[in-house]
Amino acid sequence: LNHEDIQIYISSPGGSITAGLAIYDTMHYIQAKVNTIVVGMAMSMAAFLLASGTGKRYALPHAEIMIHQPYGGMQGVVSDIDIQAKRLLKTKAQMNQMLAELCHQPVEKIAHDTERDYYMSAQEAKEYRLIDEILS
To answer: Which residues form a coiled coil (predicted)?
Structure first.
């Protein structure tokens, strides 16, 4: 594998947790440093990936970042819904722990802040330690 730094430019409303975690695992598996740069917006899983950069994590000055708990829709028989709900709660705890480590925040703060949509400007994301620098 090439060991040069990789730049990932993010402008996304988010998406699948499973797909996002596959990207996260790849970013942390490869030897190259992965710099993440938000241009426009990084919401939901995109914000998680922004924070997951293994190099520097950047935002443009007017970028908007949003974190929240996982979304999930369920249908089926009650026993299947119960299984899905337990899995989603486990995923929520896992994502909170990972984001706490990435942002150097107590997991309790992350859990509180992600109970609802939590929007941040680039400056607020820097103070939250979700990014390292604001590019200007």
So the answer is: none
> Quick one: how many helices (H) and strands (E) in the chain?
5, 6
**pLDDT tens string 37-71:** 999 999 999 999 999 999 999 999 999 999 999 98
* CA–CA distance, 102 with 80 (Å, rounded to integer): 33
Task: Pick the catalytic residue from 28, 68, 104, 112.
Answer: 68
* CATH number of the domain residue 71 falls in: 3.90.226.10
- Residues 51 and 99: beta-carbon distance below 8 Å: yes
Residue 26's domain spans which residues? 6-134
Q: For 91, phi and psi rounded to 5 degrees?
A: -65, -40
Straight-line distance from the first to the last Cα atom of the chain, in angstroms, rounded to the nearest whole number: 32
Answer yes or no: 62 catalytic.
Answer: no
pTM: 0.93
